[in-house]
Target: His-Xaa-Ser system protein HxsD
Amino acid sequence: MLMRLKKADYSEWVVRNALYWLSPTSSWILEEEKDAWLVQLEINSFEVSAELNRLLNDYILREQIMAKTQHVRESIAGEVLKAVNARLSEEC
Model:
């Protein structure tokens, strides 16, 4: 089964993560065109196609959440590093 995924709709991160988690269900081959990702699935079934679509949707949501929370995550990491640095400075 060949699926054509528009690059405007699916980032490489989304496609590769979805395919990684699809691996136990079906073997696949990923090829790249200028405007699309071509996914060749070994098993031609509705179940495999539905699972890939579920995984793609999941990783699209994860990507959106990562983008919306990036500033907060960077702030938290910065504060943790400051605290670690302060403790290390106190010990010296």
About this structure: The chain is about 60% helix and 15% strand. The longest helix spans residues 46-91. Helices lie at 12-22, 46-91. The mean pLDDT is 96.
